[in-house]
Design brief:
With about 400 residues, this protein is α+β, with helices and mostly antiparallel strands. The N terminus is likely disordered.
Length: about 400
């Protein structure tokens, strides 16, 4: 099981593991810093209204949880168990380590070591049969019989008493809370797509680091598009997918502040359980959609591709000429022929770069054969236009 010692960030990610801290740091460095979208101390930023809305919703959850959704202990345990299966490594040792980090096993005093191992193993054995719901309930019952979350922990509240989750998160989001946090947005517009491939491979769109929440801002448009299809999103309608994403990271932040001994993977599973209480698993599907077209090439990469294409076209055009052939009826003096020396405007480039391009262009012209509008051919020699003649046939 990955641990904080491997420098994995506390993040929302759609892959099996989040991006490593050094990957995130390299991307931030290439960008040159993100944009402050929210500052809780000052109450300012483009996301200020969103955070105020989340505070209000968590306060409502604290007071009237029944207005949000129906939620039984079995629902809570089932949601947690599915998050565990989705994100923990598939080997039993890693899954058991998460259960030990977040709760404790319940055994009878007369149970032998072999009996204890058998009860734990039984949790992860899929029952036979085609009824998925019945099979899952059977596993959940075995889990509930053998394990319980730490009493009065955030996970315990998510599973059994969501109203207490609302109380804790409302307190953290309250404008009167003196412990500030920021939301930092990263557009990564000028970052080379090759520098973002590892971030994309982990499908990381948000992460908590050093008390701040960081967000890949491009994902918002995709999430809002999914929100428009209420049949697809489901979950609690009063929350958007962006709300669910931000609350996931707020849970990660709360855990890092109040339960620092919980490793990053276990914290992610707790946060994912609450996220799925809000919106089910649809956020994961929507983020998959985002990564179908991200990252996009930067302007620098697009310019490099354009230059490469132009060079290939010039090479192909030059090779098409056979410079040994000359046409009949060619005049000696073609100095009066029209010759365009204009240099195309260079956009977003320094004068030094533009001058190098101009020199390269003149170098390409030297000695090459060109055709005028009336069909006569000439070549450029020492900057002058010299007619090209064909020898008389013998």
């Amino acid at each position: 099981m990955a641990s904080d010692k491997t420098r994995r960030v506390r993040a929302w990610y759609g892959g099996r593991e989040p991006a490593e801290a050094q990957v995130v740091e390299a991307a931030e460095k290439a960008e040159g810093g993100g944009e402050e979208l929210y500052n809780s101390i000052e109450g300012t930023g483009a996301y200020a209204d969103i955070v105020r809305g989340l505070y209000g919703e968590m306060d409502s959850l604290k007071r009237t949880p029944g207005e949000f959704r129906s939620w039984t202990d079995e629902d809570g345990m089932c949601t947690f168990f599915q998050a565990l299966l989705d994100f923990a490594p598939e080997d039993m040792r890693s899954r058991v380590a998460v259960l030990q980090a977040l709760g404790s096993f319940k055994f009878r005093s007369i149970d032998s070591p072999e009996q204890k191992k058998a009860k734990i193993a039984a949790i992860f054995v899929e029952p036979e049969g085609d009824d998925f719901t019945a099979n899952l309930r059977s596993q959940i019952k075995r889990l509930a019989d053998a394990w319980t979350p730490t009493q009065e922990s955030l996970l315990d509240y998510i599973i059994h008493q969501p109203a207490h989750v609302g109380r804790l998160l409302a307190d953290r989001l309250s404008p009167t809370n003196e412990k500030g946090f920021r939301i930092i947005g990263h557009a990564f517009e000028d970052v080379r797509s090759t520098d973002l491939l590892e971030l994309a491979a982990s499908k990381t769109v948000a992460y908590e680091r050093e008390g701040d929440i960081h967000l890949v801002t491009g994902v918002r448009e995709v999430l809002e598009s999914w929100d428009q299809d209420s049949m697809a999103t489901g979950g609690i309608e009063r929350f958007t997918l962006l709300d669910a994403l931000l609350l996931h990271e707020i849970v990660e932040m709360w855990l890092s502040e109040n339960a620092p001994d919980i490793d990053a993977l276990s914290a992610h599973i707790v946060a994912s359980t609450f996220e799925r209480y809000l919106k089910g698993t649809i956020l994961s599907v929507a983020v998959e959609d985002f990564f179908l077209n991200w990252p996009q090439p930067s302007e620098e990469e697009m310019a490099e591709r354009h230059r490469t294409e132009m060079e290939e076209q010039l090479a192909a055009w030059s090779s098409a000429f056979d410079e040994e052939e000359t046409p009949d009826g060619m005049d000696d003096d073609v100095d009066s022929l029209p010759f365009d020396n204009a240099v195309p405007e260079v956009k977003k480039a320094s004068k030094k770069v533009a001058e190098k391009k101009r020199e390269a262009k003149n170098k390409l012209q030297e000695g090459k054969v060109y055709r005028t509008k009336d069909g006569r051919l000439y070549r450029v020699v020492d900057g002058r236009k010299v007619a090209v003649k064909r020898k008389n046939p013998s």
